[in-house]
Amino acid sequence: MSEQTPNYETFNQKFQEWKADQEQAPQQPSHQGEAKLDVGKYLSHYGIEYKVKTNGEWVRYCLSRCVFDSSHSGGEASIGQHATGKLSYQCFHNSCKGRTWAEARRLISGEDKLTQFMPGDGSRPKQEKPKARLRSLNDLKSKFSGEVSYLWKQHIPKGMPVIINGREGVGKSKNCLAIARDILLANPAGSIIWVSSEGFVSDTITKAYEVGLPMDGRFHIAEKPDGTYRFDFRWKEERDLLAGLLEQVSERILCVFIDSIRGMTGGDDNDPKTGSVMHKLNAIVCDRFGAALVYLDHWKKGKAGTLLDKAVGTTAKTAAVRLVLSIVPTSTYSRKIKMAKSNILPFLPDLRSVEVGKNIVIEQEEEGEETLGTKAEHWLIGRFMETDEVPASEIYEEGKAQGFKDELLRKLKAKIGIGHKKNGVKSIWVSPYRELAQLAQWNFTDSEIPKESDGCKEKTTVPNYCASTVHQGTVPSVPSVQTVPEEMNKHSNKNISNHTTLDASDENYLKSIDADIDALDLENLPKGGFQL
Amino acid sequence: MKTLFDKAVFQLFCKPGEVIEVRIPKVYGKSPAWGDEYAKGTVSGYFDDHAAFCKAVMQADKALHDGIYFTLQVIDRRLIGRAFNRLKPAQHTTSDLSVIAYRWLPVDLDPVRPSGVSSSDVELSEAMALREAISLHVTKELGLPHPIQGMSGNGGHLLFRLPDIPVSEQTILFVKKNLEAIAGRFNTNKVSIDTTVFNPARIWKLYGTKSRKGDEVPAGPGREARPHRVSYIDRIGVEHV
């Protein structure tokens, strides 16, 4: 058997590349700063005989005699130096058990300085500590735009943390991969990082292929130095690893997905520290790198009130994000993505996620596809914008004609806040927008503004909300009821039909009304101040 | 099957003019293999002569021991002065500083099992089966020739021939990092790749000798056989032939 000369061209090239990378990489600081003790020089200086042995990353200086007990001879005592510079003392005798390098050093060299046995002058280079800074809003404007913009529909805001949760098996990972695909397709530049803290990387990769993630190298899966993928972000080292990974990405990071919160925190859903871990990650991903951060999370077992209540474990989790979206199954192949909580917008349209073959398509429900409940809600709001009081029987009848059941209308009555009163045996529903509707009746032209000469003796300051919400013209001084001339009633009554008809189908208008209603302090309105 | 008792195989590890150390740890008592000297601990010897090597090792294999090992990499040939073509109770063994060059990238596949016991046939076959995937990966990724594939007695071995890289801190790190990368990629819950075999003076199971880890256990009701096996080389890369 004679050995041929194998071709090592590829190997040599790879080895040289590796060496070059090593030389360029920042040197790991030694245990005692940059300066590493030359143990051989040190021992020789103090006349101690030794022999050198290496064992992996340790170099052992075997002493001819133990410094604590000279009868321990024959290489039984040694000083060890790790590759990082760390020093240790070891003697195999029980009487020397627990002896340390510091003790040995005091015996060998007393209080002498060790710097003379270190390369250079032995001094540790002074490293300037990074300092915290104060930044003005203008400074930060380039990093944070100052207004909310969205990475994906209105559901994932840029640079903010979001939770997407649902029961196991509902398709959280696959839906999130579909979201990642949509983000990458919508943004020709930028990367997405996926952290598989639950493991199952092969499953993630299979699903990534199924949803058609662009294979242009912009979707990255975080891998640990040991070749595994499960990051446990309770540990600083692992968070630092993530920060290091994000630094490696040359282009802008659009979003980081973490699958899942349970995986990244060791599995204890109720651990209150989870929120703290999430805040630390938010600081790294959202604040430092300006990327959106999507956590995948689980629902708990059993029934719960709202979607937000369904989130498993500590409330610190949902408090640590700006938006919580829930994936709710509607059929075997379709899901709804609903807002469970938002600190950004009061309302988000539901999204429909449909499995088409192995792929997933997520789209916003079109207006025409609004549910019966939404339709009924809009109709009821519109109805009570027009009228103050309507007999319940009339509402039921009109609703029936529109296809709404009595029970649905009763539920919506409670939701919208429609009041009710009795008139004999008759039940009357009372508009919650009564005062607002009356305010809306005011729409004066300048010439119609009442003047003192018109008999307005008393001036009342118009509350700000009137100016900002309903009035189209210049805001008049609001007279008290007693001083309003009769003519004014005529004007305003005349204007009701022309100017204050509220179009219930105009969603934007309704939304602004809703917002204004919330802002109104109805209890403290001047009593009768707006009656005409 | 090939062993180091085959001269051609021996010369893959110890070229003419080179020296290898044979080491037998954890021995106790006298044996003609080490000149009837009383040994307590390690027995060691340095060889450059194949016939003397075979004679000493075969005799030692009959003595009570856990396993017989040899130095894998290229060592300082002057060390032969410590025990010239014979075994004897060791005063000195080869240290990392006495290794001149890395010749092999060793991959040791151990079945996951309690320490101090031999592997069962099923466990062994798991380790042996994993060798092929690692072999393909390393030859492709590192551009190394096809490896020598062996059986250590309890697990699988792969030895990838390197171009005699001089030992330095950098090359030690290179070997270590590669082993860690292989382990990270191929470790399973049944087979573990030993990442501690990176150091230059690492000793390796001497092919042709018996591994005697723990007691030999015969098969029985609800019990797998855990035999002592003779290590061997079952495939040698075409580049070595």
Question: How would you portray this structure in words?
Answer:
- The complex is a heterodimer of chains A (about 525) and B (about 240).
- Chain A is an alpha/beta fold and about 525 residues long.
- Chain A has 4 domains: about 40-115, no CATH class; about 150-365, 3-Layer(aba) Sandwich (Rossmann fold), CATH 3.40.50; about 370-430, Orthogonal Bundle (Arc Repressor Mutant, subunit A); about 435-525, no CATH class.
- Chain A has 17 helices and 18 strands.
- Chain A has helices at about 10-25, 40-45, 100-110, 135-140, 170-185, 200-210, 235-250, 260-265, 275-290, 315-320, 370-385, 390-400, 405-415, 435-440, 465-470, 485-500, 505-520; strands at about 50-55, 60-65, 75-80, 85-90, 150, 155, 160-165, 190-195, 220, 255-260, 290-300, 325-330, 335-340, 350-355, 360-365, 390, 420-425, 425-430.
- In chain A, the strands form 4 sheets. Chain A has a 9-stranded mixed sheet with strand order 9-8-10-11-7-12-13-14-15, with helices on both faces. In chain A, strands 1-2-3-4 form a 4-stranded antiparallel sheet, with helices on one face. Chain A has a 3-stranded antiparallel sheet with strand order 16-18-17.
- The radius of gyration of chain A is 37 Å and the shape is elongated.
- Mean pLDDT of chain A is about 75; it is low at about 30-35, about 440-500 and about 525-530.
- Chain B has helices at about 5-15, 50-60, 120-140, 170-185, and strands spanning about 20-30, 40-45, 70, 75, 90, 100-110, 150, 155-165, 190-195, 205, 210, 230, 230-235.
- Chain B has a single domain (about 5-215, about 225-240), classed as Alpha-Beta Plaits (2-Layer Sandwich).
- In chain B, strands 4, 6, 7, 8, 9 and 13 form a 6-stranded antiparallel sheet that branches.
- Chain B contains 4 helices and 13 strands.
- Chain B is globular.
- By secondary structure, chain B is an alpha+beta fold.
- The interface of A and B includes residues 54 and 228 of A.
